[in-house]
TrEMBL record:
Cited Gene3D superfamilies: 2.30.30.30, Ribosomal protein L2, domain 3
Ribonucleoprotein keyword on record: yes
A GO CC term attached to the entry: cytosolic large ribosomal subunit
Domain (Large ribosomal subunit protein uL2 C-terminal): residue spans on this chain: 22-131
Pfam families in alphabetical order: Ribosomal_L2_C
Name under which the protein is recorded: 60S ribosomal protein L8-3
Keyword Ribonucleoprotein found: yes
Keywords assigned: Ribonucleoprotein, Ribosomal protein
InterPro entries recorded: Rib_uL2_dom2, Ribosomal_uL2, Ribosomal_uL2_C, Ribosomal_uL2_dom3, Translation_prot_SH3-like_sf
GO molecular function: RNA binding; structural constituent of ribosome
Source organism phylogeny: Eukaryota, Viridiplantae, Streptophyta, Embryophyta, Tracheophyta
Record family assignment: Belongs to the universal ribosomal protein uL2 family.
């Protein structure tokens, strides 16, 4: 299963591997991706199926490649820079669903369903407001 990238559409052909083209949704090894490219769903170790930049609207940027020890440097959504093996795969593009948190809730019911899984953190009753 893939994480949906912004700009993908139903019926689109996705290609994986080192010969895939640099098109949104394709999965390539980091060594095949040029510096400055926006990627998502990046692997930490070769074959772990992607752990970095998977939340809605997230992306990582390929900063540099080091062919001597076969590593690549990426900038994560947190701003930290990480060195990973160049054989790690990444999906080209940004994860879909960005701006999800900018929409106002409007109803208490929406907040109820959002915080329902977080046990007893909503609603917050302030004793000061009661008197």
């Amino acid at each position: 299963l893939f994480v949906a990238a912004e700009g993908m559409y139903t019926g689109q052909f996705l290609y994986c591997g080192k010969k895939a083209t640099l098109v949104v949704g394709n999965v390539l090894p980091l060594r095949s991706i040029p510096e400055g490219a926006v990627v998502c769903n990046v692997e930490h170790h070769v074959g772990d199926r992607g752990v970095f930049a998977r939340a809605s609207g997230d992306y990582a940027i390929v900063i540099a490649h080091n062919p001597d020890n076969d590593t690549s440097r990426i900038k994560l959504p947190s701003g930290s820079k990480k060195i990973v093996p160049s054989g790690c795969r990444a999906m080209v593009g940004q994860v879909a669903g960005g701006g999800r948190t900018e929409k106002p809730m409007l109803k208490a019911g929406n907040a109820y369903h959002k915080y329902r899984v977080k046990r007893n953190c909503w609603p917050k009753v302030r004793g000061v407001a009661m008197n």
